[in-house]
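User: We ran a pulldown and think these components assemble together. Before we commit to crystallization trials, I'd like a predicted model of the whole complex to look at. Sequences follow.
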Amino acid sequence: SAVISQKPSRDICQRGTSLTIQCQVDSQVTMMFWYRQQPGQSLTLIATANQGSEATYESGFVIDKFPISRPNLTFSTLTVSNMSPEDSSIYLCSVVGGTDTQYFGPGTRLTVL
Amino acid sequence: GEDVEQSLFLSVREGDSSVINCTYTDSSSTYLYWYKQEPGAGLQLLTYIFSNMDMKQDQRLTVLLNKKDKHLSLRIADTQTGDSAIYFCAESRGYSSASKIIFGSGTRLSIRP
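Assistant: Here's a predicted model for the assembly, 226 residues in total across the polymer chains.
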């Protein structure tokens, strides 16, 4: 399985600011995804991060709010822009590993005051 | 629709078997997964099953799939305190696990002595 790290592991931010979350994988992967897990909820896919092109966003998520970068096959960032308390969640990246299954990073726990 | 449903809570005695159930609605699901999330941690892929299989066993874990009824279950034999976690059922469509994953709400498994 792929080893995935995320930075930061947690953060507390003020309303109106932005936070960029990094996802690093120890091997080259084609598919990377960003998920959100709101408190006490299940996971919801935000977008698919495509290398060399714009991310593909799911319904209810827009690029202006969640810009994503994917500069190479081992790294991606998700920015949560103009944050509000409703953005308080765990943000997880995932990749498709060698066994063709999705593996998840440890998550970034975000609290917006 | 894209629905994956599971009960929210399950309590079992240590040493007994735990059975976590899940139903899904999309008959075109190709992969079905069980993920484990321990408190404050990310998601760990426990096991997965292809839709053309009925059963998969991996040490203490047994996955049963009834495709006709769209019912998936996870049995944990000899449940231990370390099995306390939230267990997410998930499914994806398409021809690889790179497809979008739909998660259930998660079942919180608690172990009593």
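Chain B touches chain A at residues 31, 33, 35, 40-45, 48, 88, 92, 96-98, 100-101, 103-106 (CB under 8 Å). That may be worth checking against your pulldown data before setting up trials.

User: Thanks, that helps.
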